[in-house]
From TrEMBL:
Pathway membership, UniProt: tRNA modification; tRNA-queuosine biosynthesis
Cofactor annotation comment: Binds 2 [4Fe-4S] clusters per monomer.
GO biological process, one term: tRNA queuosine(34) biosynthetic process
Organism: Thioflexithrix psekupsensis
Keyword tRNA processing: yes
GO MF terms held by the record: 4 iron, 4 sulfur cluster binding; cobalamin binding; epoxyqueuosine reductase activity; metal ion binding
Compartmental location: Cytoplasm
Record-given protein name: Epoxyqueuosine reductase
Amino acid sequence: MSNTPTVLLQHLQHWSKELGFQELGVSDVDLTQAEQRLHIWLARQYHGQMDYMARHGDKRSRPAELLPGTLRVISLRINYLTATREDLWSQLQDAEHGYISIYAQGRDYHKVLRQRLKQLAMRLEQAIGSYQWRVFVDSAPVLEKPLAEKAGLGWIGKNTNLIHPRAGSFFFLGEIYTDLPLPITEQRHSDHCGRCQACLPSCPTQAFVAPYLLDARRCISYLTIEYKGIIPENLRPLIGNRIYGCDDCQLVCPWNRFASRSVEVDFQARAPWKNTRLLDLWAWSEADFLRHTEGSAIRRVGYLCWLRNLAIALGNAPKSDTIRLALNARLDFPSDLLQEHVRWALARHE
């Protein structure tokens, strides 16, 4: 096959479609503006307890410091929406069931995407011989959204998600860092949020400080997944029945009326998440939790914080003697963190 950079890009785009990706783009490694925004965000402590955001220094915004020799970043997106927005709103309104962010209901996307990115990189290696490459899926210091924006996969909206005008924002991103001088794809999607601000007031905990600026310390996704401590009492009622992540700012985004349903088997809701009745999940032992979350992104939250999140959701559920008894049964759990949230939930039912 021809080894010209343009032909290589065409082959990559074709092969990526065969692997299930919806789009592929290529960017250079200049993230000067994104780096400045990151420094401001970190200086304001909006990253909360995600110390790794600051610890990695400029590796996040300077790809060649993470992988020396990097000239280009190949960005790809793949849809993960497996339910209608109406169904998701219905789940949020059912206070006796827990809401789990749609992206986490299938197989751990890190594993799915990493495997496919490696297949794509190795397929190119088979065609042209050895070259430098490394794949990333939301697990290393990578500014994936600014890179994808530069590669032409969308624009970063006011809710800080990457938005595509024909696909919305319900998609995963993955990257391949490489030393190949591939052609840079056009950054063809300017910001189309316009005057719309539907996402900003939709946030239950008002985590948006301003358009395009999120304070993670108030974000439900951060609080229920990344944060391992006692959730501030004033935020607990606002979390509602969200026990792992939050989709509200995406659900109200008008561009997501164009979001396509995913046909990926790996992203379909797994058996445990087809019944998220809070009392059933609350009854799980740690062994149950580990068994049901095997191969799932949800396992990373850990059993203790899983119970913490459930305690808050139970506290926000309609008053019930059954719930009160179930909460009482956990009062002797050997954790001050959990006991704090159980006592709060009990007070809501008295």
